[in-house]
Amino acid sequence: MSATARQRRARSAAGGAIVLLVVIVAASLMIGARPVPPAVVWEAFVRPDMSLPDHVVILTQRLPRTVIGIVAGAALAVAGTLMQGLTRNPLADPGLLGVNAGASVAVLAAITLLGITQPAGFVWFAFGGAAAAAIVVALIGTRGPEAGNPAKLALTGAAVTAGLTAVTTLILTTSVLALDVYRYWSVGGLTARGLDTVAVVAIPVVVGAVIAFASARGLDMIAMGEATASGLGAHVGRTRALGVIAAVLLCGAATSIAGPIVFLGLVVPHALRTIVGSDYRRLLLIAAPAGAALLVLADIVGRVIAPPGEIQAGLVVAFLGAPVLIALVLRRRQVAL
């Protein structure tokens, strides 16, 4: 495929992802246990009246969970793209840095030591735990022989995750309160949180996204091999350090407000690579709206498939992501990094 054709396909994919996101956001505001007509949704924003039940539902429930889905989905997709580029592994995901495990231990500590039982109260603890675990993995993985080697980074992440998972299991088996509260947060959901939680992580998400996009050129160089990248004048160490920092900020923020969402950061970049190729400038740009659209869509599906209850978005993403990933892996024509 020529460069012009790739650029045209990338522009089409970006436009399609943005349009899809807009449509899904509109659907998220209308669809639920109580369907709301488009005209009422519009009126709730231009002339809000909190005495009307539909306006209350839209502004206090559906709007916050939609915004959280957009922020968390975009952050996880961009972070997953970064991790796949840094490790040159198309099956890498944000969990490689121990983010989910670190956030889980921090949340359990907040429950057992401080008595915090509301998801909105976990934000800072989850973010801090996720960031701390990722920093430990990064520090260990970038020291000693073969510092910064993708395989060493992956093994370090697996080791730290295993250790933190053991701590999580120990706490859950000794505290009934921790088990009752944690099992809701751990499935990954967008409910029981307000827009104030998004404000808490807004700066880390923006900073992480800026660093990620600034690292795109370096990721393209790393994809050709470290020796080649260095020969072409790329600063491999600096690119990898910036990428890890961006992934920590994005993963920590997303996990803190939405819980440990699995598969999204893996499937979105892997699927986009089959459409737009391996140019990380395009991948990162399109991954953000695509990831946001997928998570909000999963939340919508979770609202309607098991009435009168709901299934958390994290579970829906897992159900949707697993078969898609299997299909991508089994494709005969694979797109190399």
UniProtKB/TrEMBL annotation:
Membrane topology note: Multi-pass membrane protein
Superkingdom, natural source: Bacteria
Membrane-spanning parts: 12-33, 63-83, 95-116, 122-141, 153-177, 197-214, 244-271, 283-305, 311-330
Keyword terms, alphabetized: Cell membrane, Membrane, Transmembrane, Transmembrane helix, Transport
Subcellular location: Cell membrane
Entries under CDD domains matching the protein: TM_ABC_iron-siderophores_like
One Pfam family in the UniProt entry: FecCD
Family under the similarity heading: Belongs to the binding-protein-dependent transport system permease family. FecCD subfamily.
This protein's name: Iron ABC transporter permease
